[in-house]
Amino acid sequence: MVNLTSNQTNEFEIRPYKSNDEKIILETFNDVFKTQRTMDHWKWKYLSNPYGQTWISVIWHQDKVVAQYAGYPIYLYMQGKKQLSCQAADAFTVSNYRKIGHGATSLMSRAFRHYERSFCETQTAFGYGFNVNKIQRLGKLFWQHTVPAQVYQRTLDEFQVSQYRKIRTWFSRLKGYNVIKTTQANEWADQVFEQVKDDYGWLLIREQKYLKWRYEQHPDFKHDFFVVYYWGKPIGWIVGRLENNRWLLGDALFEPKYAYIALQLALNKLFNEYPQIQQIDSWCSEVPLWWNKLLDKLGFIKQRQFQNLDLVVRFYLSKINPEELAQNFYFTWGDSDLY
Fold it and tell me: Where are the domains of the chain?
């Protein structure tokens, strides 16, 4: 049992990740969370992100990793331009070290301060993550704001799924539309994003290289894209994965003027490919309003996310306020570290 007091914290080394740290970091992570995350997953998440940076702050005590704060860079399209931001990811303190310091002097707080000084303060618009209500008080040590952007789960239940299976005849009469199932993000991703980037408010840049990393190259799950074309032009897509009789919808992007028909076509194709599906689960922001109205119209049931998740944010170079972010930020389940 470790027995250190807060005035002995100079015995700890705080530094950025260095090559070959990953073995002990991963072993410690798996021990803290009682899980079996693989090295392939760790390398995918932190070494293979498309923007080529590893953002991890590690606290060492002798030869042990005892705390970590980690995230990864992403780019947003906001206020008409591309801006670097940060998605919060894995944070932990080894149980025997959680009483070292208090509040701002705890090891976790020290790891976070090192993290934001090293990676965020001089280059990112803001950092964001998702917190559950029960840890909001802890989160205030790190996050300036709980943005008034509650996370709402979206469900398409068994009855609605059955209705989509009955409308194949009507869809077969539509001219010019085509839906392709693929596991690869290609040029269609860049084309769709350029067409719709001003229709969603502020959003992650869902370009080809990002989608490849986030979904196609994920080492733990197989994801399918359903891409909708109109007279050969890509007009939207959804991406998700199958879990038993549920399909977990991670992300979606559509041209607004085609979205009502295009999303139905994508779902119809999905249900034909996987007849065992009985339910779709997803979640997304409440903006843009047109997208949420469309989901309501198509039968998606809206309810508060079961963990009561809220978007949290800490601003760095951006001059916007939390309410402005909440009113403009389009995010989906796949934009989080929880999908």
Answer: 6-124, 152-312
